Amino acid sequence: MADKFDVIVIGAGPGGYVAAIRAAQLGLKTACVEKWIGKEGKVVFGGTCLNVGCIPSKALLEASHKFVEAKHDFSDMGIEAGDVSMDVKKMMARKDKIVSNLTGGIAGLFKANGVTGIEGTGKVVGAKQVEVTDKDGKATTYEADNIVIAAGSVPVEIPPTPLTEGLIVDSTGALEFQDVPKRLGVIGAGVIGLELGSVWSRLGSEVTVLEAMDSFLPMVDSAIAKETQKLLKKQGLDIKLGARVTGSEVKGKEVVVKYSDAEGEQEMTFDKLIVCVGRRPYTKGVVADGVGVGLDERGFIHVDDQCRTSVPGVYAIGDCVRGQMLAHKASEEGIMVADIIAGHKAEMNYDAIPCVIYTFPEVAWVGMTEQDAKAKGIEVKTGSFPFAASGRAMANNATEGQAKIIADAETDRILGMHIVGQHAGEMIAQGVIALEFGSSAEDLALTCYAHPTMSEAVHEAALAVEGHAIHMANRKKRK
User: Fold this and answer.
1) Does the model's pTM come out above 0.90?
2) Per the database record, which ranges form the Pyridine nucleotide-disulphide oxidoreductase dimerisation domain (predicted)?
3) Is 451 noted as a catalytic residue in this protein?
4) Domain total for the chain?
């Protein structure tokens, strides 16, 4: 038997590495198991988020957005940039460097906090035992009083479009293109599909997004979703709703995709195809048979509100449990679990987890949509404010979008905030804080905001809940 630990975490993604660091900070002897092999042939930390998800995609989104700005928007500000071009290989190299810096940074944080990194594939083989198999096939069993499963998720593959090297790819493959495809197909108009579609559309691809559902971004407030769809279409994304992919065929260096819509059977040809139809929990083989950790039919591990499994001392967090598959949700669950193991009282407010789509403009939301509230029988009042009326948005050449607040009609308590606009991902934190503290719309309306800022749109939306917006014609009379 190898070393014994107070806590062993399986997986070093944003849930696992945060849980491990927090546990070590609280004085617990902690180890974190990771099997991810990086491009240099060594184990790297950070999971999907840092290696092939959140971070590299944002690097490409930022670079491609700056390219579009320089090519099309600078002249509006009096900046003549001349003939602007994009070196895709250099853009990719920068992305890889950022990933390398951050994954290496986690290794440094482990060392600074006393977390033992264990390389290999972790498996729970008992209530207090984790078996780790290294790349050579050697298995070592470790004891731990507490085990945290943070194995993450992987992209969903669908039978009609089997992955084909360099032609039909998942989100990971879409981050590795070395040239701009002339015709790009994207299956799935969710967060990942819209972000990746935006990157390559900005760089010159003719992008078609095939979405099986008839509604666009149903999890977003309908007014915000409608405006987002209009803005993305204006940018060149051809989003086909109600388009169910039925098959594909690789012909040389092209992919022929067959799909059905309201008009019948259709066919399109692409140079590259990205499959972005969601992610599934990576839990197969993570827990040995007979341990007692329960899984549902989709592979998610059963946990309570504090991420305890059915086996005492075994916890599960992040993408392999219920809830939204978000890095920050996983991180907060990791902190909560570490605190609980250390004997502290801890819980999470799952109603106040923000979501962001990093297109341009960004789309961000937290809490209920107006349609959610009405479905639950809650009478609401809303306030919206367009960035077209914002002085800072005008100065930034970013007047598209709006901020919207949904409040309980009886209590004035804020139920949700939805924003489409520049820096929406930063501004949504105001909505998260408002929900955490049970704020009313009046609380935000009475708050002094700096001028000129994009956040003033949130202030004006709060004022608009009662018809008191200053910089917009009001529909209601002052009380």
Assistant:
1) yes
2) 353-462
3) yes
4) 3
